Protein backbone atom coordinates (compact mmCIF):
# COMPACT_ATOMS: atom_id res chain seq x y z
CA UNK A 1 0.00 0.00 0.00
CA UNK A 2 1.11 3.54 -0.74
CA UNK A 3 1.43 6.28 1.89
CA UNK A 4 -1.95 7.75 0.91
CA UNK A 5 -3.67 4.37 0.90
CA UNK A 6 -2.35 3.63 4.41
CA UNK A 7 -3.65 7.01 5.63
CA UNK A 8 -7.11 6.46 4.11
CA UNK A 9 -7.37 2.91 5.45
CA UNK A 10 -6.46 4.11 8.94
CA UNK A 11 -9.00 6.94 8.69
CA UNK A 12 -11.90 4.66 7.81
CA UNK A 13 -11.32 2.87 11.12
CA UNK A 14 -10.42 5.78 13.40
CA UNK A 15 -11.99 8.99 12.06
CA UNK A 16 -13.53 11.43 14.50
CA UNK A 17 -17.23 12.28 14.28
CA UNK A 18 -17.14 16.06 13.93
CA UNK A 19 -20.23 18.16 13.09
CA UNK A 20 -18.58 20.20 10.33
CA UNK A 21 -17.84 16.97 8.47
CA UNK A 22 -21.56 16.33 8.07
CA UNK A 23 -22.03 19.20 5.63
CA UNK A 24 -20.78 20.63 2.37
CA UNK A 25 -21.94 24.13 3.33
CA UNK A 26 -18.86 26.35 2.81
CA UNK A 27 -20.07 28.91 5.37
CA UNK A 28 -20.30 26.29 8.12
CA UNK A 29 -16.94 24.80 7.12
CA UNK A 30 -15.40 28.31 7.14
CA UNK A 31 -16.73 28.87 10.66
CA UNK A 32 -15.15 25.64 11.89
CA UNK A 33 -11.82 26.27 10.19
CA UNK A 34 -11.38 29.78 11.56
CA UNK A 35 -12.47 28.75 15.06
CA UNK A 36 -10.04 25.82 15.04
CA UNK A 37 -7.03 27.93 14.05
CA UNK A 38 -4.74 27.81 17.10
CA UNK A 39 -7.57 26.16 19.05
CA UNK A 40 -8.05 22.52 20.06
CA UNK A 41 -11.17 20.72 18.80
CA UNK A 42 -12.47 20.17 22.35
CA UNK A 43 -12.18 23.88 23.13
CA UNK A 44 -13.55 25.06 19.79
CA UNK A 45 -16.60 22.79 19.58
CA UNK A 46 -18.88 24.81 21.94
CA UNK A 47 -17.98 28.01 20.07
CA UNK A 48 -18.82 26.38 16.75
CA UNK A 49 -22.29 25.44 17.99
CA UNK A 50 -22.85 28.95 19.43
CA UNK A 51 -21.99 30.62 16.12
CA UNK A 52 -24.09 28.22 14.05
CA UNK A 53 -27.07 28.72 16.36
CA UNK A 54 -26.93 32.52 16.59
CA UNK A 55 -25.55 33.29 13.11
CA UNK A 56 -26.66 30.37 10.90
CA UNK A 57 -25.68 31.97 7.58
CA UNK A 58 -23.32 34.55 6.17
CA UNK A 59 -26.13 37.10 5.77
CA UNK A 60 -26.78 37.14 9.51
CA UNK A 61 -23.05 37.14 10.27
CA UNK A 62 -22.46 40.20 8.09
CA UNK A 63 -25.45 42.03 9.60
CA UNK A 64 -24.36 41.39 13.20
CA UNK A 65 -22.68 44.09 15.26
CA UNK A 66 -18.97 43.63 15.91
CA UNK A 67 -19.77 43.59 19.63
CA UNK A 68 -21.96 40.53 19.05
CA UNK A 69 -19.19 38.73 17.17
CA UNK A 70 -16.66 39.53 19.88
CA UNK A 71 -19.04 38.40 22.63
CA UNK A 72 -19.55 35.05 20.89
CA UNK A 73 -15.80 34.76 20.40
CA UNK A 74 -14.98 35.67 24.01
CA UNK A 75 -12.38 33.31 25.48
CA UNK A 76 -10.93 32.00 22.21
CA UNK A 77 -8.15 34.56 22.01
CA UNK A 78 -6.50 35.96 18.88
CA UNK A 79 -9.43 38.34 18.43
CA UNK A 80 -8.20 39.49 15.02
CA UNK A 81 -9.67 36.20 13.75
CA UNK A 82 -13.16 37.32 14.79
CA UNK A 83 -12.73 40.78 13.27
CA UNK A 84 -11.47 39.29 10.02
CA UNK A 85 -14.48 36.95 9.95
CA UNK A 86 -16.75 39.96 10.16
CA UNK A 87 -14.87 41.65 7.30
CA UNK A 88 -14.96 38.44 5.26
CA UNK A 89 -18.73 38.06 5.70
CA UNK A 90 -19.27 41.61 4.48
CA UNK A 91 -16.98 40.92 1.51
CA UNK A 92 -19.09 37.87 0.61
CA UNK A 93 -22.27 39.95 0.75
CA UNK A 94 -20.78 42.72 -1.39
CA UNK A 95 -18.87 40.63 -3.94
CA UNK A 96 -20.71 37.29 -4.06
CA UNK A 97 -24.29 38.39 -3.38
CA UNK A 98 -24.28 36.43 -0.12
CA UNK A 99 -23.27 33.12 -1.75
CA UNK A 100 -20.19 31.87 0.09
CA UNK A 101 -17.41 31.05 -2.43
CA UNK A 102 -16.05 27.52 -2.76
CA UNK A 103 -13.19 28.08 -5.24
CA UNK A 104 -9.68 28.22 -3.76
CA UNK A 105 -8.65 31.41 -5.58
CA UNK A 106 -11.83 33.23 -4.53
CA UNK A 107 -11.50 32.08 -0.94
CA UNK A 108 -7.97 33.51 -0.76
CA UNK A 109 -9.47 36.98 -1.26
CA UNK A 110 -11.37 36.79 2.03
CA UNK A 111 -9.80 38.56 5.02
CA UNK A 112 -8.31 36.04 7.41
CA UNK A 113 -8.25 33.20 4.88
CA UNK A 114 -4.80 31.92 3.98
CA UNK A 115 -3.61 29.05 1.83
CA UNK A 116 -4.39 26.33 4.38
CA UNK A 117 -7.91 27.59 5.12
CA UNK A 118 -8.70 28.11 1.44
CA UNK A 119 -7.52 24.59 0.64
CA UNK A 120 -9.61 23.14 3.47
CA UNK A 121 -12.83 24.94 2.54
CA UNK A 122 -12.46 24.32 -1.20
CA UNK A 123 -11.71 20.62 -0.78
CA UNK A 124 -14.27 19.92 1.98
CA UNK A 125 -17.11 21.82 0.31
CA UNK A 126 -16.33 21.26 -3.36
CA UNK A 127 -13.74 18.45 -3.61
CA UNK A 128 -11.23 20.81 -5.18
CA UNK A 129 -7.90 18.93 -5.28
CA UNK A 130 -5.97 21.21 -2.92
CA UNK A 131 -3.80 19.66 -0.22
CA UNK A 132 -4.17 21.05 3.29
CA UNK A 133 -1.04 21.80 5.24
CA UNK A 134 -1.65 22.42 8.94
CA UNK A 135 0.47 21.54 11.98
CA UNK A 136 -0.73 17.95 11.96
CA UNK A 137 0.17 17.44 8.31
CA UNK A 138 3.58 19.09 8.71
CA UNK A 139 4.34 16.68 11.56
CA UNK A 140 3.27 13.54 9.70
CA UNK A 141 5.24 14.42 6.58
CA UNK A 142 8.34 15.59 8.45
CA UNK A 143 8.53 12.36 10.44
CA UNK A 144 7.59 9.89 7.73
CA UNK A 145 9.99 11.35 5.16
CA UNK A 146 12.63 12.51 7.67
CA UNK A 147 12.54 16.15 6.56
CA UNK A 148 14.74 18.37 8.74
CA UNK A 149 14.03 21.66 6.97
CA UNK A 150 12.21 24.02 9.38
CA UNK A 151 8.48 24.02 8.65
CA UNK A 152 8.27 27.81 9.08
CA UNK A 153 11.16 28.63 6.74
CA UNK A 154 10.59 29.68 3.13
CA UNK A 155 12.43 26.63 1.83
CA UNK A 156 10.56 24.34 4.23
CA UNK A 157 7.15 25.66 3.26
CA UNK A 158 7.95 25.11 -0.40
CA UNK A 159 9.16 21.53 0.20
CA UNK A 160 6.18 20.53 2.33
CA UNK A 161 3.62 22.22 0.05
CA UNK A 162 4.96 20.37 -2.98
CA UNK A 163 5.07 17.04 -1.16
CA UNK A 164 1.57 17.44 0.30
CA UNK A 165 0.11 18.19 -3.13
CA UNK A 166 2.00 15.27 -4.68
CA UNK A 167 0.59 12.83 -2.11
CA UNK A 168 -2.99 14.11 -2.32
CA UNK A 169 -5.58 11.57 -3.43
CA UNK A 170 -7.11 13.68 -6.18
CA UNK A 171 -10.08 11.31 -6.51
CA UNK A 172 -11.04 11.86 -2.86
CA UNK A 173 -9.39 15.15 -1.79
CA UNK A 174 -11.84 15.98 1.01
CA UNK A 175 -11.59 12.56 2.61
CA UNK A 176 -7.82 12.39 2.24
CA UNK A 177 -7.29 15.85 3.73
CA UNK A 178 -9.47 14.99 6.72
CA UNK A 179 -7.65 11.67 7.03
CA UNK A 180 -4.11 13.02 7.21
CA UNK A 181 -5.14 15.74 9.69
CA UNK A 182 -6.82 13.18 11.94
CA UNK A 183 -3.80 10.90 11.63
CA UNK A 184 -1.58 13.69 12.91
CA UNK A 185 -3.99 14.65 15.68
CA UNK A 186 -4.70 11.14 16.97
CA UNK A 187 -1.85 8.85 15.88
CA UNK A 188 1.24 10.88 15.05
CA UNK A 189 0.82 13.19 18.05
CA UNK A 190 3.36 15.87 18.99
CA UNK A 191 4.35 14.02 22.18
CA UNK A 192 4.35 10.30 22.88
CA UNK A 193 2.95 9.14 19.51
CA UNK A 194 1.89 5.50 19.39
CA UNK A 195 4.63 4.42 16.99
CA UNK A 196 4.40 0.73 17.99
CA UNK A 197 0.92 0.46 16.46
CA UNK A 198 1.36 2.92 13.59
CA UNK A 199 0.46 1.71 10.08
CA UNK A 200 3.41 3.71 8.71
CA UNK A 201 6.01 2.41 11.17
CA UNK A 202 7.94 0.17 8.75
CA UNK A 203 8.81 3.04 6.40
CA UNK A 204 8.85 6.00 8.82
CA UNK A 205 12.28 7.62 8.60
CA UNK A 206 11.96 9.38 11.96
CA UNK A 207 11.09 6.14 13.76
CA UNK A 208 13.80 4.13 12.06
CA UNK A 209 16.47 6.77 12.79
CA UNK A 210 15.29 7.63 16.33
CA UNK A 211 14.30 11.19 15.38
CA UNK A 212 10.60 11.17 16.25
CA UNK A 213 11.07 13.66 19.10
CA UNK A 214 13.21 15.94 16.91
CA UNK A 215 10.80 16.33 14.01
CA UNK A 216 9.32 18.53 12.74
CA UNK A 217 11.89 21.30 13.10
CA UNK A 218 10.62 24.83 13.66
CA UNK A 219 12.62 28.06 13.82
CA UNK A 220 12.17 29.83 17.14
CA UNK A 221 10.19 33.06 17.13
CA UNK A 222 11.08 36.26 18.89
CA UNK A 223 11.32 36.24 22.68
CA UNK A 224 8.21 37.11 24.68
CA UNK A 225 8.22 40.36 26.64
CA UNK A 226 6.85 40.81 30.12
CA UNK A 227 4.14 43.41 30.87
CA UNK A 228 2.67 44.36 34.23
CA UNK A 229 -1.00 45.40 34.37
CA UNK A 230 -2.73 46.79 37.44
CA UNK A 231 -6.52 46.61 37.13
CA UNK A 232 -8.85 48.58 39.40
CA UNK A 233 -12.35 47.62 40.50
CA UNK A 234 -14.26 50.87 40.97
CA UNK A 235 -17.84 50.28 42.17
CA UNK A 236 -20.66 52.79 42.44
CA UNK A 237 -24.02 51.63 43.73
CA UNK A 238 -24.83 48.57 41.59
CA UNK A 239 -22.40 49.45 38.80
CA UNK A 240 -18.70 48.93 38.09
CA UNK A 241 -16.40 51.14 36.04
CA UNK A 242 -15.37 49.51 32.75
CA UNK A 243 -12.90 50.58 30.08
CA UNK A 244 -13.21 49.82 26.37
CA UNK A 245 -9.89 49.31 24.63
CA UNK A 246 -9.11 51.36 21.54
CA UNK A 247 -8.44 50.27 17.95
CA UNK A 248 -4.97 49.09 16.96
CA UNK A 249 -4.76 46.60 19.79
CA UNK A 250 -5.10 42.80 19.98
CA UNK A 251 -7.97 43.39 22.40
CA UNK A 252 -9.47 46.29 20.40
CA UNK A 253 -13.04 47.22 21.43
CA UNK A 254 -13.10 44.63 24.23
CA UNK A 255 -13.99 45.66 27.77
CA UNK A 256 -11.84 45.45 30.86
CA UNK A 257 -11.33 47.38 34.09
CA UNK A 258 -9.38 50.66 34.19
CA UNK A 259 -5.70 49.88 34.37
CA UNK A 260 -2.25 51.31 34.94
CA UNK A 261 0.76 49.60 33.39
CA UNK A 262 4.15 49.57 35.10
CA UNK A 263 7.64 48.58 33.98
CA UNK A 264 7.84 45.85 36.61
CA UNK A 265 6.04 44.34 39.61
CA UNK A 266 4.95 46.82 42.29
CA UNK A 267 4.04 46.76 45.94
CA UNK A 268 0.97 48.83 46.86
CA UNK A 269 2.98 51.87 48.16
CA UNK A 270 4.92 51.95 44.89
CA UNK A 271 1.68 51.75 42.90
CA UNK A 272 0.09 54.60 44.87
CA UNK A 273 3.20 56.71 44.28
CA UNK A 274 2.80 56.48 40.48
CA UNK A 275 1.74 59.77 38.85
CA UNK A 276 -0.76 57.98 36.61
CA UNK A 277 -2.41 56.26 39.57
CA UNK A 278 -2.72 59.53 41.47
CA UNK A 279 -4.20 61.20 38.38
CA UNK A 280 -7.28 58.99 38.76
CA UNK A 281 -7.39 57.86 42.38
CA UNK A 282 -5.35 60.42 44.31
CA UNK A 283 -3.60 58.86 47.31
CA UNK A 284 -6.30 56.27 48.02
CA UNK A 285 -4.91 52.94 49.20
CA UNK A 286 -6.33 50.10 47.08
CA UNK A 287 -6.96 46.58 48.37
CA UNK A 288 -5.30 43.82 46.36
CA UNK A 289 -7.97 41.20 45.65
CA UNK A 290 -5.93 38.13 44.77
CA UNK A 291 -2.46 37.05 43.81
CA UNK A 292 -0.90 38.31 40.59
CA UNK A 293 -1.97 36.22 37.59
CA UNK A 294 0.27 35.33 34.68
CA UNK A 295 -1.59 35.44 31.35
CA UNK A 296 0.38 34.21 28.31
CA UNK A 297 -0.21 35.63 24.83
CA UNK A 298 1.87 35.21 21.70
CA UNK A 299 5.08 37.15 22.36
CA UNK A 300 3.71 38.64 25.61
CA UNK A 301 3.53 37.52 29.23
CA UNK A 302 1.03 39.64 31.12
CA UNK A 303 1.26 39.78 34.91
CA UNK A 304 -2.13 41.07 36.03
CA UNK A 305 -2.96 42.34 39.52
CA UNK A 306 -6.48 43.30 40.57
CA UNK A 307 -7.30 45.90 43.22
CA UNK A 308 -10.49 47.22 44.79
CA UNK A 309 -10.71 50.99 45.15
CA UNK A 310 -12.55 51.96 48.38
CA UNK A 311 -16.15 52.98 47.64
CA UNK A 312 -15.82 56.32 49.41
CA UNK A 313 -13.00 57.43 47.08
CA UNK A 314 -13.96 60.10 44.57
CA UNK A 315 -12.34 59.78 41.12
CA UNK A 316 -9.90 62.60 40.40
CA UNK A 317 -10.41 62.20 36.63
CA UNK A 318 -11.81 59.67 34.19
CA UNK A 319 -10.88 58.71 30.64
CA UNK A 320 -13.54 59.19 27.96
CA UNK A 321 -13.79 55.45 27.32
CA UNK A 322 -14.40 54.63 31.00
CA UNK A 323 -18.08 54.13 31.75
CA UNK A 324 -20.11 52.53 34.52
CA UNK A 325 -21.93 49.30 33.72
CA UNK A 326 -24.46 47.54 35.92
CA UNK A 327 -22.80 44.59 37.63
CA UNK A 328 -25.55 42.20 36.53
CA UNK A 329 -25.04 43.26 32.89
CA UNK A 330 -21.31 42.56 32.67
CA UNK A 331 -21.95 39.28 30.85
CA UNK A 332 -23.37 41.31 27.93
CA UNK A 333 -20.01 42.99 27.31
CA UNK A 334 -17.37 41.41 25.09
CA UNK A 335 -14.29 40.83 27.25
CA UNK A 336 -10.97 39.10 26.82
CA UNK A 337 -10.26 35.89 28.75
CA UNK A 338 -8.21 37.50 31.51
CA UNK A 339 -11.12 39.77 32.49
CA UNK A 340 -13.99 37.34 31.93
CA UNK A 341 -12.28 34.74 34.14
CA UNK A 342 -11.79 37.29 36.91
CA UNK A 343 -15.43 38.40 36.71
CA UNK A 344 -16.58 34.79 37.04
CA UNK A 345 -14.59 34.55 40.29
CA UNK A 346 -15.35 37.94 41.75
CA UNK A 347 -18.89 38.95 40.74
UniProtKB/TrEMBL annotation:
The name on file for this protein is Adenine DNA glycosylase
One Pfam family assigned to this protein is HHH
Q: What is its EC number?
A: 3.2.2.31
Q: Which domain of life is it from?
A: Bacteria
Bound cofactor: record note: Binds 1 [4Fe-4S] cluster.
Task: Name its species.
Answer: Sphingobacterium tenebrionis
Q: Which reaction does it catalyse?
A: Hydrolyzes free adenine bases from 7,8-dihydro-8-oxoguanine:adenine mismatched double-stranded DNA, leaving an apurinic site
Leader sequence residues: none
Where does the HhH-GPD domain start and stop, copy by copy?
A: 35-186
Q: Do you know which PANTHER family this protein is assigned to?
A: ADENINE DNA GLYCOSYLASE
Q: Which cofactor does it need?
A: [4Fe-4S] cluster
Q: Which UniProt keywords apply?
A: 4Fe-4S, DNA damage, DNA repair, Glycosidase, Hydrolase, Iron, Iron-sulfur, Metal-binding
Per the similarity annotation, which family is this?
Belongs to the Nth/MutY family.
Function of the molecule: Adenine glycosylase active on G-A mispairs. MutY also corrects error-prone DNA synthesis past GO lesions which are due to the oxidatively damaged form of guanine: 7,8-dihydro-8-oxoguanine (8-oxo-dGTP).
Amino acid sequence: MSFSEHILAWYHQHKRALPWRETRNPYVIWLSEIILQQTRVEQGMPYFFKFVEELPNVTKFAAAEEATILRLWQGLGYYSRARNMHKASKYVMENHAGSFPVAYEELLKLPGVGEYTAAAISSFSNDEPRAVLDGNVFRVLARYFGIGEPINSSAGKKIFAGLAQELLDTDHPATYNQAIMDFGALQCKPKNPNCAECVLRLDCVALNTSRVAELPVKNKGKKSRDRFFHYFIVEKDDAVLMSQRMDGDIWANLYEFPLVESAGPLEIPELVAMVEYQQYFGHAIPEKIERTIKHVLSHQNIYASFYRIPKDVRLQSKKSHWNYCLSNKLDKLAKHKLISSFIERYF
